[in-house]
Design brief:
- By secondary structure, the protein is α/β, with parallel strands linked by helices.
- It folds into two domains: about 10-105 and about 215-310, Rossmann fold, CATH 3.40.50.150; about 110-215, Orthogonal Bundle (DNA polymerase, domain 1), CATH 1.10.150.170.
- The chain has 14 helices and seven strands.
- A seven-stranded mixed beta sheet has the order 3-2-1-4-5-7-6, sandwiched between helices.
- Helix 8 crosses helix 9 (about 180-190).
- The longest helix has 15 residues, at about 215-230.
- The relative contact order is 0.14.
Length: about 300
């Protein structure tokens, strides 16, 4: 079993303020690190956890051994969590969390095709049952679509050049492996760019992964339902790993927690009706400590935002 270190673990659990008899949702089970800490705080409470990666579900079941009776694991995309809760007769929850990073075992298993450091078939599917993979994206998407994805999801300034090179190379033969793609990316960038810190393929691989798994679409759906699902006093905690995700979470939280002026004149204080239904638990985003970043370099880009329903 690959080692996975849960990011911002204590900060997330403390932020959720777990009630022993509460109902909690982990939208991104992974290897069960956050779920296990929630379960340790439950008496008669319930945890419902989701993952669309079957390997993650199976490995977590072993990791959560001893807490049977307090949790239910569901194999599905977290964007569908509300439907499953409704089927279980759960209308509201005391807490909900998501760790939006790709889990280390997914990165570290070369056969999954997530890593630009390992040679593997282009894949990147979190749900191996789905048809769309990185191979289809790279070999069938148009020049315009590839450029758009690389620009929007990867924020790479050489998006057009890379997309153009991919289209030309695949006319000769299909691009099948991560190494082939890395070589194309490197060949599309000027030498001065290749000399910079960080892997030259990182942003493009991120972009393809987001497209393959519709990560931003799923997050938008889940955020809307997550906020609606909270009981009064309930909290939602989201850990993001890149600016696109963080912006979505930040905007969704601000939209429901900020007062955009009042309906009254500027000299009056807002009334109870004017006050928002939610409040930010942390006005300043929470990032990992120096110690955590040193022990787990993959945590460096993590940001945690927490919100509470107050009425």
């Amino acid at each position: 079993m690959s080692k996975h270190i849960s990011v911002l673990l204590n900060e997330t659990i403390d932020g959720l303020d777990v009630k022993p008899n509460g109902t909690y949702v982990d939208l991104t089970l992974g290897r069960g690190g956050h779920s296990k800490e929630i379960l340790k705080k439950l008496d008669n409470g319930l945890l419902v956890a989701f993952d669309k990666d079957e390997t993650a579900i199976n490995e977590s079941r072993q990791n959560l051994h001893g807490f049977e009776g307090n949790f239910t694991l569901i194999l599905d995309d977290f964007r569908n969590f509300k439907k499953h809760l409704n089927q279980m007769g759960i209308d509201e929850v005391d807490g909900l969390m998501a760790d939006l990073g790709v889990s280390s075992p997914q990165f570290d298993d070369p056969s999954r095709g997530f890593s630009y450091k390992e040679d593997a078939r282009l894949d990147m599917r979190m749900d191996t049952r789905q048809k769309l993979s990185a191979y289809e994206v790279i070999n069938t998407y148009s020049l315009n679509d590839l450029t758009r994805i690389f620009r929007e999801y990867g924020e790479d300034k050489y998006s057009y050049q890379i997309a153009n090179k991919i289209v030309k190379m695949r006319e000769i033969s299909p691009i099948e492996t991560t190494t082939q793609l890395v070589d194309i990316i490197k060949a599309s960038k000027p030498q001065k760019e290749l000399m910079k810190k960080g892997h030259p393929a990182k942003q493009i691989f991120q972009a393809i992964r987001i497209e393959v798994n519709d990560e931003l679409g799923a997050l938008k759906d889940a955020l809307t339902d997550a906020l609606k699902s909270l009981k009064i006093g309930g909290r939602a905690a989201f850990i993001t790993f890149h600016s696109l995700e963080d912006r979505l979470v930040k905007n969704a939280f601000n939209e429901v927690s900020k007062v955009e002026g009042t309906r009254h004149n500027v000299f009056s204080l807002p009334t109870e009706d004017d006050l928002p239904n939610y409040r930010l638990v942390n006005n300043k985003v929470i990032i990992p400590s120096e110690k955590e970043m040193e022990e787990n370099p993959r945590s460096k880009s993590a940001k945690l935002r927490i919100i509470e329903r107050v009425k």
